[in-house]
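Side project, low priority. Logging it here so it doesn't get lost.
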Amino acid sequence: MDWPLVGRDENFEDAREVIDAGTGLAIIGAAGVGKSRLLHELADGVEARGMAVVRTVASEATRNIPFAPFAELLPEGPTEDLLAMLKGARAALEALGGRGRALLVVDDAHQLDATSLAFLKSAVASGVATLAMTVRTGGQLEADLVDLWTNGVIARMDLAPLDRDQAGLLIESVLGELSPELEEELWDLAMGNPLVLHELIEGGLGGSIERRDDVWVKIGPLTDSARLADLVASRLRALPERLRHAMDMVAVGSPLPVALAREAIGDELANLEQRNLVESTGTPGQRAVIPAHPLYGEILKAHLGEARSAVAHRRLVEADEGAEGVADPLRVALWQQACGEILFPKVAVTGAKQALLRHEPGLAEELLRPLGIEDDEVALLLGRALSYRQRFAEAEAVLAGRHPDDPNLLGEMASIRAQNMGFGLGRVAEARDLLTSVAEKIEDRGLKARLTNERAMVSAIHGDFVDAMSASHTVLSQPDTPAASRASAYVTLTVALAMTGDCDRLDDCIEDALETGEAAAGVLPFARDQIEIMQMSSYLNAGRIGEALAMCDVGTGRGDRGNAMTTTWLSASVLAYELSGNPPRAISAGREALDLFEEADPFGLEPQTRGVLAAALGQAGDSSSRRALDEAQAVGRGARLRVWLARGDTWATVVEGDLESAARIATEGGREAVDDEHYAWASFCFGDAVRLGRPDLVIDDLRSIDSSRGAHLIAAIKDHAEAALAADPALLESVAAGFAAFGAALLGAEAYARAAAFYVPAGEPERAARCVALSLALERRCGGPRTPALDSRPSLVTPREMEVALDAASGLTSPMISEKRYISVRTVDNHLSSVYRKLGVAGREEVAMILEPVAVSE
């Protein structure tokens, strides 16, 4: 593959001016930046203009052979008479130059032997030749060589790597168009080094990159290239073994805190820095040692071998112990794991604690397993890791029967066991009894309060919100209660308030709750997220659906929370998107959550998610709704899960065509939720029965639910039932407008559809058509739902007419609509005329006024 000289135009012109002026030039830079290529292009240009050029290359292999690079200037070969040899070579060089001076081109002049270097200085000093050479930085240079440019004998040109734009042009000139991902990785690995780019691309053509639809994409690891490995090996092959071992440690441990690097590498650190193999980075007080080029580390690690890797990792662990723990404890634990043996058990324990704090229970389990479970602290951490991974029975098997003397360990163990039993195994009474009995044995007020809170949380999740609120207020009313206990109390309190639909009280306490959860993050890493999720749930109850969705986007987008909270936020997102009336988004979030639940599901939310996913699939008319539901297992896990399984069952039954059974399933699911005091979620089940045309089944149940404390969406669901039962289309219109304002687009579309169906037999076709138009406008936001209410909507306005009407209402002219919709202007005007007639209006402005209720949540 032909590689043009790109990004060096200015360097080339500057170099040519120096040579044309008869001044020598040293091109200086790091390995691979393009010094040799620039030198050869320069020499070719000079030669093309008729100037004599003598080219030579110095190397490591010739460094100990006197005069080897210039032997061709001595027809009879080198002699023992050094002076005669130098004169002869100089005379030969002069003869080659003829009337002008020859150009003496020396690549890698830093590798010249002493005799050759003496000749070079002699040739330049005598004026028989103009010198152009390359010199690599990164090693100790001979003083005689450096004198050539420091004393002004020749000019110096420092050649830097290509910048981002130059590197991009070079790659494009060779390959053509690249995917953004491939371009980004090439930049990250090569950092503008043309030689590395060359080897990455040439090596990648063998299997790491390929062309798809005229765009080059990555299909495998770029660093697997054998060419690249050879390139890096050539840079490091000449290192003494002690420096190779030092580089091994930098490669596997980078970035290494400077104090640790000094402990592990010692005096060799300065040697590596002098050779430009490593460098330090970071802020003062937090400096770290890294490979001078990313590829050094990548390639070294890839080709290190098991034995050398184990040695390097072992030395790092020992050095960190000697430096009194300056590195990240989790990284040290992983180094110990990589060395293949437990050097210091405390390293694994400390690392596992950090893994749990960073929401990586799988990693914590890996670190702890080799230690066994004889030690209570190790067992506790392993039980917590297993619990976070939803392996509740395994966690209970590890922890059951243990009675540590340390009160903190006893309390922590009770906490984890209660979570396993209460959330995962359905053993609610045992969980409550355990927390109560252990709390009685503990004197520490903070820990006692926390266990009381957790007992209340188990109660809350299973419907005893009176106990939950009472316990929470008891803890929060004590001013000296530690942050962790207050955070736990707020988690319980916000659950209780959200489930009972008390949005006003939750709003009153949420600011302090969030601040407290953040303050307790070191002990309760999930607390703030749990509180935020309850805030989001309360927003749904209050009809603040847009704000709820925004919270979900932030929660799922956090990169530092680990899979445990990612899955929890995704579960919340499924619920929020389903209630917003966007089944496709709910389905997408649900499937993403299911992919991650095997790794982490600390609160046992998979059945809930499968239930909401089934409901969303059912509302999209997808026959796989039943299959998603059948895979959920939630026996004995309380109303918090069963209510959503009931909703999933409802909509799976709708897809199967049995609307009467579906309405009864929704009714029973809601009543079971009411029995466990999950009033807010119960209302959503009852709302499904209303949507399926059976408000009579649930009207009394809905009337019994209190929505007076800010739960405006729940109030609207109740109003929907009343309006549907009374067959009152005007009231249904009002309810639909409320749903639209809340951001519940599908509920609004269905309510307008029902209103239209009542207006038709009442002899009010224009009002019916207006409701159909509003229903169609809202349906457009829902991603193509299929529900009975929409299927029974009168066909008074067509979807195409609605598209055109919405465009006109937004201010588009007929020609603009024509261009947007790929229809003629006449067709646009015909559609608008039809809409005006059906809606009983005179023009665009009146259409916009009619559609105003559905524009609220645009």
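Brief comment: Strands lie at 24-29, 53-57, 102-107, 129-136, 154-158, 209-212, 215-218, 256-257, 278-281, 288-291.
Revisit when time allows.
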